[in-house]
Request: fold
Amino acid sequence: MDKRQIDITYLEYGSLGELSAEDRDLAARAIEATRNSYAPYSGFHVGAAVRLDDGTIVTGANQENIAYPSGLCAERTAMFHAAAEYPDTPMQTIAIAAVSGGTLCSEPATPCGACRQVMAEYQTRGGHPISILLVGAEKIWKFSRVDNLLPLIFDSLEK
Reply:
């Protein structure tokens, strides 16, 4: 038997001001997208912004439904919208932010398993890593590829 370990590396920033201008803009767009959330049941408003390889930014927000689980997460709303509108343009980065009680959450909100798997699918489809920005008021985490949030994905670009 061999004991193995999976290590995940990510960057942690203390504020939006520490990000590159490009990432700061994407994070701001994700925060702004929380306003389009429909979350009357949870009160947890999530916004996502996807930057495509050509610089286009597409946003999405979570959409709840009283017939749970008929709603959809912000991440998948944004990614599906991007793929439907720009099917031949790979995704480069996705930023995700959450607001609760009218305030940006202090800690970054992390994507659910279904969203992580959809990110992995688009990463494979695009042929290069998709970076992920998880935006909180007190810290921001940046992952360089989906594999860092979903180790051992079906079709990792790292073979």
Q: What stands out?
A: The CA atoms of residues 41 and 67 lie 11 Å apart. The helical segments are 21-33, 74-85, 113-126.
